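REQUEST FORM: STRUCTURE PREDICTION
Request ID: SP-0412
Submitted by: Lab K.M.
Chain count: 1
Length (residues): 121
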Amino acid sequence: MTILALDHVQLAMPPGREAEARAFYAGLLDLAEREKPEPLRARGGCWFERGAVAVHLGVEDPFTPARKAHPAFRVDDLSALAARLAAAGHPTRADIPLDGCDRVFVDDPFGNRIELVQARS
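STATUS: Completed
RESULT:
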């Protein structure tokens, strides 16, 4: 048996803050919201995706943000995305370039750490 692919990443969020999740993940990161299956809607949270990238935000109460564990998203214009995030009140933090990639970290509205990576040309 072999693992074939990553299906999705699950992050936690506090209850009742779906509008902030939509503003960040759909509005700033340009991930389309996907409707949650009917049996899961009552739990709250949001699902987002673009191509092979899928992020599920599930409600956790009490909530504790992921400060170290994080997803890393490959992007095609890191500087433009970092500027858009900063203008919306989500400044990025530069980190050491690795493996021919530039990367920054940003916190989502709930304090979860997100890494953004762009291959250096």
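NOTES: The domain at 9-119 is CATH 3.10.180.10 (2,3-Dihydroxybiphenyl 1,2-Dioxygenase; domain 1).
Reviewed by: T.R.
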